[in-house]
Amino acid sequence: MGAPSGRSVTCPSCAFHFKISPEEVASKRYRCPHCGSGVDLGTEPPTVERPENFVEVFSTRNQGDIALLKSLLDDAQIDYYVLGEEFLSIYPLIQPARFFVSTGHAEKAKLILKSIDTNSFGVSRS
Description:
About 20% of the residues lie in helices and about 30% in strands. The protein is of the alpha+beta class. The strands form 3 sheets. A 4-stranded antiparallel β-sheet has the order 7-8-6-9, covered by helices on one side.
């Protein structure tokens, strides 16, 4: 038996067609790579969360920092998305991965950022 595959979806905000990961299927949440809207599949019709409800709190070019911060934000149940993470392997020194958190969780995310040591090249804290 092969690895579980994702599912094809259409963004209700911009009508972009793409495939979501098995993790996104299980969580019933995904972020559209085209318009940046977050979509909650647990509601009917799906709820759209616009990118303007999020603020940038961190950017990095270091894969280790990305994995660590994603783990910490998941553990703290902070709603976030990462923009540009997929381009690090293609353009590692040009475009950093940028972390955006919901405006309601921004202060909590900044406290988490203060508690970790990110001494990597290309880091900024917003």
